[in-house]
């Protein structure tokens, strides 16, 4: 009987759905709290009960990233790999990899001081969207429409003065319908997609109240999403796509521990089952 382990730091509906489906499929299934797990450089695989494969599902990006590295140190199959988690968790790395692998993506600027950020804005023109290079749920994503707004946002960053506040990630505003697309890829397949419609504001995150609507998986959408998946290293991924009025589809983000409760409501395929089946096949490689 395959042994599936789901690592969490906060149990959301997604983790409950994965656990339930894994049990239904007849697998030996356990939930493991990352917050109470300890490793040392002397740790051995048989010191733990991590089963045949681990689905890393921590809400905290940094906790999940480092937990994954510890699992790989013990030669335990884990989804997604540390390299993939790092590539997806850092928006700058994601943007660079998408561009390097010829995946259409919004033009993005990177500067390493507030002065250089303002210079970029003044030179290339407003509006640009400023985003934290690490973060989720649309937090800290702000359209900078004029110098006054830019000065205010940058002032807050300078007061916080965290190490990541010194890296400025500025992205063009894509002319698009008031929605974007969240798609989920599992291995070499695109299994589901939905439109996330704006609730009247700039953002389209389900966590902020955006409404999920089923989206047909066309060959064009599948091609760009799978190309994006390969660019960051593959696995189980959430791919965020915008419909540019002139260029067509552009990928602006790839998510490592993807949330899917909204998409599960409108998807034709059973998302937790697809993820568990992939994990089992991954463990057998």
Topology at a glance:
Elements: E1 3-8, H1 13-24, E2 28-33, E3 53-56, H2 61-73, E4 78-79, H3 82-89, H4 91-100, E5 108-111, H5 114-124, E6 128-131, E7 142-144, H6 147-160, E8 168-172, E9 179-186, E10 189-197, E11 211-214, H7 219-232, E12 236-244, E13 248-255, H8 261-264, H9 271-283
Parallel strand pairs: 1-2, 1-3, 3-4
Antiparallel strand pairs: 5-8, 6-7, 6-8, 9-10, 9-12, 10-11, 12-13
CATH architecture of the largest domain: 2-Layer Sandwich
Compute the number of structural domains.
Answer: 3
State the order of secondary-structure elements, H for helix, E for strand: EHEEHEHHEHEEHEEEEHEEHH
CATH topology group of the largest domain: D-amino Acid Aminotransferase, Chain A, domain 1
The strand count comes to 13
- Which strand-content bin applies to the residues? 25-35%
What structural class results from the helix and strand content?
alpha+beta
Outline the biggest β-sheet.
5 strands, antiparallel
**Could you name the CATH class of the largest domain?**
Alpha Beta
Could you tell me how far the N terminus lies from the C terminus, measured between alpha carbons in angstroms?
16 Å
Structural overview:
By secondary structure, this protein is an alpha+beta fold. It has 3 domains: 3-86, Rossmann fold; 108-172, 2-Layer Sandwich (Dna Ligase, domain 1); 175-280, ATP-grasp fold, B domain (D-amino Acid Aminotransferase, Chain A, domain 1). It is 35% helix and 25% strand. The protein contains 9 helices and 13 strands. The chain has a 5-stranded antiparallel sheet. A 4-stranded parallel sheet has the order 2-1-3-4, with helices on both faces. The protein has a 4-stranded antiparallel sheet with strand order 5-8-6-7, with helices on both faces. The chain is globular. The mean pLDDT is 94.
């Amino acid at each position: 009987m395959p042994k599936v382990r789901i690592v969490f730091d906060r149990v959301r509906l997604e983790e409950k759905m994965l656990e339930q489906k894994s049990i239904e499929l007849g697998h030996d299934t356990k939930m493991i709290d990352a917050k109470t797990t300890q490793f040392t450089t002397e740790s051995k695989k048989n010191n733990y009960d991590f089963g045949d494969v681990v689905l890393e599902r921590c809400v905290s990006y940094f906790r999940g990233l480092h937990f994954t590295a510890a699992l790989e140190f013990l030669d335990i199959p884990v989804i997604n790999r540390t390299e993939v988690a790092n590539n997806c968790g850092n928006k700058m790395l994601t943007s660079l990899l998408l561009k390097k692998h010829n995946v259409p993506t919004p033009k993005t600027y990177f500067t390493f001081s507030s002065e250089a950020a303002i210079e970029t804005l003044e030179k290339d023109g407003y509006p640009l969207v400023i985003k934290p290079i690490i973060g989720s749920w649309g937090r800290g994503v702000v359209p900078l429409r004029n110098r006054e707004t830019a000065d205010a946002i940058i002032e807050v960053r300078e007061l916080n003065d965290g190490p990541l506040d010194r890296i400025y990630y500025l992205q063009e505003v894509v002319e698009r319908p008031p929605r974007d697309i969240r798609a989920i890829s599992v291995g070499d397949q695109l299994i589901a997609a939905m439109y996330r419609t704006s609730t009247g504001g700039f953002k389209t995150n389900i966590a902020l109240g955006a409404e999920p609507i089923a989206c047909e998986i066309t060959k064009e959408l599948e091609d760009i999403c799978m190309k994006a998946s390969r660019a960051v290293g593959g696995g189980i991924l959430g791919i965020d796509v915008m419909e540019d009025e002139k260029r067509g589809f552009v990928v602006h983000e790839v998510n490592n521990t993807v949330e899917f409760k909204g998409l599960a409501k409108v998807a034709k395929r059973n998302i937790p089952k697809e993820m568990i089946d992939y994990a089992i096949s991954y463990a057998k490689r």
